[in-house]
Amino acid sequence: MKIFKLDDMIRGWFIGDFNPSVFNTEAVEVGVKRYKKGDYEQRHHHRIATEITAIIEGKVLMNDKIYSKGDIIVIEPNESTDFKALENTINVVVKLPCAKNDKYLGEKE
User: Fold this and answer.
1) Out of 2.40.50.140, 2.60.120.10, 3.40.50.12780, 3.40.50.2300, which CATH number does the structure's domain 6-99 have?
2) This prediction's pTM
3) How far is CA 74 from CA 2, 19, 30, in A?
4) What residue ranges do the domains of the chain occupy?
């Protein structure tokens, strides 16, 4: 049995093709993301990866729509979104496949 600490991972990402990681793979990325009320991520999209976000605690605004605890949002490749934490929030994020350098700011060109 191996034991890891989420706090030792970079920005909550613990499975994927990066170090440190609990399980190194090019198949998927998994992270537990924590946001404070007011945190904001600029509009972006992925060209390769599908991003799945599960809201565990809190409330967020994505594409002018409010999501809260229990909601699961699937963002397909080339769909864009921004993100604002309306409350302190915890998300689990899954990206398939693990695709390095696949984050592009703004709408798809």
Assistant:
1) 2.60.120.10
2) 0.90
3) 31, 26, 14
4) 6-99
